[in-house]
Design brief:
This is DegT/DnrJ/EryC1/StrS family aminotransferase. The protein is of the alpha/beta class and 390 residues long. Helix 8 packs across helix 11 (360-385). Helix 6 (136-146) links the parallel strand 4 and strand 5. The chain has 11 helices and 12 strands. It folds into 2 domains: 11-99 and 106-252, Aspartate Aminotransferase, domain 2 (3-Layer(aba) Sandwich), CATH 3.40.640; 256-383, Aspartate Aminotransferase, domain 1 (Alpha-Beta Complex), CATH 3.90.1150. The structure holds pyridoxal-5'-phosphate.
């Protein structure tokens, strides 16, 4: 089976775990702090605002809590989105307001976001589809202009940037995922980065029971009297990372550039081999100054054949998928809207396998089978559409 996503872990990660075992300190500790420092350096931001947590989802929930959203607020987000974003908004009582996307980049444009703003809008939450930065710089400027908070779900875009600024650092809060399907992984894990220092301190408290002082896990406990008493300042949760997963993260982060280079080469091969093929539309090229993470590679097919092509490929041992099924169609969010580009993209887009473990031969196999499936199914669709009497 050729997978659509696949992690790459090996001896170096095992060695890092072994080292944590030998220290016998497993919870939040020195390895976590090192990883946070390294991640901040990767993002080119201050270390204080960066927190290693147990998932991107818990980071998104925390982001909405930090913004103090409530039932009087609207939050604009693209409908082509991972469900965690809408849940994180809805749980606060705020109303998710889904915006449309460009039908080919699957990223919202500045105009898409602007059209969805209301006087009640308190925040905008965007992701960078497949690792393409999209119009993030323009969206950040729009949000600043309107006095609306910007949260970036940078789960797809760990290595993406625009003119040297990393995706996830344009807005007020950025969140990354290190779950098993992402470019680099810690099994489960995430990172949240909070720009405002005061809010960042609050993030630290919320991540551990609302406690001001983490004496129980900062090894060098403050030796005041009754050190076992807790300084609980507000209601927090328990979303911190730990030294085992952080140790894996440090190794993975060092390997990131190599992973992305390989993914970029694979995307380039798809671009070349599929260029000009009738019935297959390729993802738009990255604009000048944009660097992508190549988390997804997608093609767009006639809606009449997309699902069948996916089935044919699965039969041939090639797994493809579509991310992210539009959320405006989910009744739970009480947000029925007409989003024509989103609907179009959701019916035509198919993600092909891209991960650093693919061989050149795998990529050629995917291309060969895709071409066959598209030709086959287009022929049949045309025959049916043309009266179907044969
Ligand atoms: C994977 C993903 C998430 C969720 O990440 P977890 O770490 O599993 O919580 C959120 N948003 C996007 C865009 C994702 O791709």
């Amino acid at each position: 089976m050729i997978n659509v996503f696949q992690p790459s872990l090996g001896e170096e990660e095992l060695e890092a775990i072994r080292e944590v075992f030998s220290r016998n300190w497993l919870g939040y500790g020195p390895r976590t702090q090192t990883f946070e420092t390294e991640f901040a350096a990767h993002l080119k931001v201050d270390r204080e605002g960066v927190l290693f947590i147990n998932s991107c989802t818990s980071g998104l929930f925390m982001a909405m809590e930090l913004l103090e959203l409530g039932p009087a607020d609207d939050v604009v987000l693209p409908s082509v989105n991972f469900v965690a974003n809408a849940n994180a908004v809805a749980v606060t009582g705020a109303q998710p307001v889904f915006c449309d996307v460009d039908p080919h980049t699957l990223n919202p444009t500045v105009a898409d976001v602007e059209r969805a703003l209301t006087p009640r809008t308190k925040a905008v939450v965007v992701l960078h589809y497949g690792g393409h930065p999209g119009e993030i710089a323009g969206i950040a400027a729009l949000c600043r202009d309107r006095g609306v908070a910007l949260v970036e779900d940078a789960a797809c875009s760990i290595a993406s940037s625009v003119d040297g600024t990393m995706c996830g650092t344009f807005g007020d809060i950025g969140v990354w995922s290190l779950d098993a399907r992402k470019i680099i992984t810690t099994g489960d894990g995430g990172v949240i980065r909070v720009r405002d220092p005061e809010l960042a301190r609050r993030a630290h408290r919320l991540a551990y029971h609302g406690m001001v002082d983490r004496s129980s896990f900062t090894a060098m406990a403050d030796m005041r009297r009754r050190w076992w008493e807790l300084a609980v300042q507000e209601i927090g949760r328990r979303t911190i990372g730990n030294d085992i997963t952080a140790a894996i993260g440090s190794v993975q982060l060092r390997r990131l550039d190599g992973f992305v280079a390989r993914r970029r080469a694979i995307a380039g091969t798809y671009d070349r081999m599929l260029a000009g093929v009738e019935g297959i539309r390729l993802p738009p090229p990255l604009p000048a100054g944009h660097v992508g993470s190549h988390y997804f590679y997608w093609v767009q097919l006639d809606a009449a054949i997309r699902d069948q092509v996916a089935e044919d490929l699965l039969e041939r041992g090639i797994y493809t998928t579509f991310r992210y099924p539009p959320l405006h169609r989910t009744p739970l969010y009480r947000a029925d809207r007409h989003l024509p580009h989103t609907d179009e993209a959701a019916e035509t887009t198919l993600l092909l396998p891209v991960h650093q473990g693919l061989t050149d031969e795998d990529v050629e196999t995917v291309v060969g089978e895709l071409l066959k499936a598209v030709e086959n199914r287009s022929g049949r669709a045309a025959a049916n559409g043309g009266g179907g009497t044969r």
